[in-house]
Amino acid sequence: MDYVMRVVRADEWPQVRQLRLDALRDPAAPVAFLESFEEAEAKPDVFWQQRAADAAEDGPGRVRQFVAESPDGEWVGSVTVLVESPDDEVRFGEGSPVDQAHLVGVFVRPEVRGTGVTEALFREAVAWAWSLSAPRMERVRLYVHERNPRAAAFYRKFGFVPSGQRIPAPGDRGDQELEYVLGREGQGGPARSSC
């Protein structure tokens, strides 16, 4: 089956909300996301409307949400890219030492995992980051929970490498989030696979 990788549109906020809620129902959600299903479900429509507008193609330019869409219109995956600069407020983890993109909110429905959809989403997200010229991205980063080996294996396969940076995971369990980075020299990602 062929999937289309594209940026969300502002009027698609109900789908943005629904995909996030579906992601938070996934068994890996406690180590993959910083919020619970209940927290996300309680947010008002205006929150989701603003989130979609900010991440849309014609949004302000510092956020993009990419989705994988099936031929019948179902959203089967998503990744969001945040643009970070050294003078920005810290959103998650450590402050940015350089102009960089930060991948967050990675989710692909279980039934399409292993089909190339995640790789295709990452290629789109990373290509968008590298296409920016003001500021020019020096690297792409993401964080992965130390107890999420499936995600860590995918990130390494794509070309991300552990930076050695560790930060406390949200909550007081003593868990760590590990930073993975992809420099410009690694921008190609894995060999293209069909999806």
Number of helices: 6
Order of helices and strands: EHHHHEEEHEHEE
The rounded Rg comes to 16 Å
Taking strands numbered 1, 2, ... along the chain, how are they ordered across the largest sheet?
Answer: 1-2-3-4-5-7-6
Q: How many distinct beta strands?
A: 7
Proportion of helical residues: 25-40%
Q: Find the structural class using helix and strand composition.
A: alpha+beta
Q: Indicate the overall shape.
A: globular
Distance between the termini: 7 Å
Low-confidence stretches: 188-195
- Which whole number gives the mean pLDDT? 88
Q: Approximately what portion of the residues adopt beta-strand conformation?
A: 25-35%
Main beta-sheet strand count, sense and barrel state:
7 strands, mixed
Could you explain the architecture of this structure?
By secondary structure, the protein is an alpha+beta fold. The chain has six helices and seven strands. The protein has helices at residues 13-25, 29-32, 37-41, 45-55, 117-131, 149-158, and strands spanning 4-7, 63-69, 75-84, 100-108, 139-145, 161-168, 176-183. It has a seven-stranded mixed sheet, sandwiched between helices. Residues 188-195 have low confidence and may be disordered.
